[in-house]
Amino acid sequence: MLAVRDTTENRLRTDATLSATISKPANSKQVRLVQEWLCLHDHHVVIDNGFGDATERVIKEFQSRSDLPPTGQVDQSTMDALVQPMLRAIAPDPSPAGSIPAQAVRVAQRHLAEHPREIGGPNRGPWVRLYMSGREGEKFLWCAGFVSYILGQACRDLAKGRPIVSSQSCDDLANDAKAKDLFFPGSSRPRPQPGWLFVRRKTANDWTHTGLVIEADQSVFRTIEGNTNDDGSREGHEACTLTHSYEDKYDFIKIA
What we know:
Layout: H1 7-15, H2 29-40, H3 53-65, H4 76-90, H5 100-113, H6 126-131, H7 143-158, H8 170-179, E1 183-184, E2 197-203, E3 206-216, E4 220-228, E5 238-245, E6 250-253
Antiparallel strand pairs: 1-6, 2-3, 2-6, 3-4, 4-5
């Protein structure tokens, strides 16, 4: 498995490292992880921690599609294949861009290519736990966790300090940017640069959604954002790219 570099990623490696082959009739958190990843690979099964006939069948299907022996049991090779999308997303960049904003865009595009999304219920699943420091559940909206993780990975790739606080709260990101003179209210009509953040304002002191700007011109800006979907909801189920027109409700955080 690829090397990983922080506490959350070490947890991923630990969870995905088997002490023994998993097979019927196991019942455990590792079985749940297998079931989550099977569903993320479009081999859908009920996520219930229980290794029964249905889980065995879809494991065989996944193994066959992945050129692995279709044993219906989960050995380390099968587990590695299951979690490979996340390992690709978090892998160190051997040739990073020359700045944090440019590298953040590269990292976000790498994550987007692996289609991070919820599985097993609202704000649940391996991707949510990655972005939310192991936490998941209905109250754990993960848009701020997503951009904080992306920025953190970009900074690690470049061996540089973070320009703003790492937080799972949009309010924390906005307030920290204000304190560092990196906050641009929508009323000032800024033109954000790739690698900046947007924050959607509800009130003067309350922001409800955030994402990473990847392109911008005079009329629109394009983003990669987590916990949304193609209708722009702040409580969606995936990471995706969206195009927004400039509106006063959008404020911006400069990343330099």
